[in-house]
């Protein structure tokens, strides 16, 4: 029992420190966060306290109002902190991969499965919705990356649906803050074992490509690469 209390006491300072750090980071972007939180808490408590006086139970309604004021403040703080975090990440390389990495249970993400010289990149997420290819970068350039990766997925796992998403703020694109919601809205068509099997097949493909033996030594004289050979990206 004493050990559990000690662990809880040790965790509390860590949570408080994390909340303080989150508030500090949020306040750099959202300058009115302090005023908004104070207003939400005071108004919520004041409304319930006023109702308590009207019905003759100010103590009970005051306690209830205090609890609800704390809850409302926490909810508003969480949403504004999330908005501020996405605002800072927007347009940063790898931002989509960070969101995919925190999408939740049931999803397996692989960052940067395709990339070009301009640093446009495609990430892959596998879940019960199938395979989702998420691209970030120049909209015109990433379309060719997506098309090539989608073609490869259809060839390897033809029985699994493949979706593609371009992260951005333009027409037909998905904003970074809506990326997780977008993926979770895709219809679930695979079972757990099917998701595992899909991941195994994709992982085996990656291992096969990484372990493919390469010829050693100089290229023989007069030997030329075939015209359909691999080209540098």
From TrEMBL:
Alphabetized InterPro entries for the sequence: DUF4191
Q: What Pfam families does the record point to?
A: DUF4191
Region Disordered: start and end of each range? Answer: 210-233
Q: Which residues cross the membrane?
A: 33-53, 59-78
Q: What protein name applies here?
A: DUF4191 domain-containing protein
Keywords assigned by UniProt?
Membrane, Transmembrane, Transmembrane helix
Origin species = Streptomyces galbus
Q: Where is the composition biased (Low complexity)?
A: 219-233
Q: Which domain of life is it from?
A: Bacteria
């Amino acid at each position: 029992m004493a050990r559990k209390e000690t662990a809880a006491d040790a965790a509390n300072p860590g949570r408080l420190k994390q909340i303080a750090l989150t508030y500090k980071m949020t306040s750099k972007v959202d300058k009115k966060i302090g005023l908004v939180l104070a207003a939400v808490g005071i108004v919520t408590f004041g409304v319930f306290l006023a109702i308590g006086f009207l019905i003759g139970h100010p103590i009970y309604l005051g306690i209830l109002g205090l609890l609800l004021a704390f809850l409302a403040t926490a909810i508003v703080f969480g949403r504004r902190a999330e908005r501020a975090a996405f605002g800072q990440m927007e347009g940063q390389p790898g931002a989509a991969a960070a969101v995919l990495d925190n999408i939740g249970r049931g999803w397996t993400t692989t960052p940067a499965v395709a990339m070009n010289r301009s640093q446009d990149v495609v990430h892959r997420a596998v879940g019960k919705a199938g395979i989702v290819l998420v691209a970030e970068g120049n909209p015109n350039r990433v379309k060719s990356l997506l098309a090539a990766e989608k073609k490869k997925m259809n060839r390897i796992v033809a029985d699994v649906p493949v979706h593609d998403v371009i992260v951005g703020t333009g027409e037909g694109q998905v904003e970074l803050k809506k990326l997780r919601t977008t993926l979770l809205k895709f219809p679930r068509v695979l079972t757990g074992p099917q998701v595992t099997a899909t991941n195994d097949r994709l992982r085996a493909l990656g291992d096969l490509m990484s372990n493919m033996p390469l010829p050693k030594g100089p290229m023989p004289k007069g030997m030329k690469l075939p015209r359909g050979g691999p080209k540098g990206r």
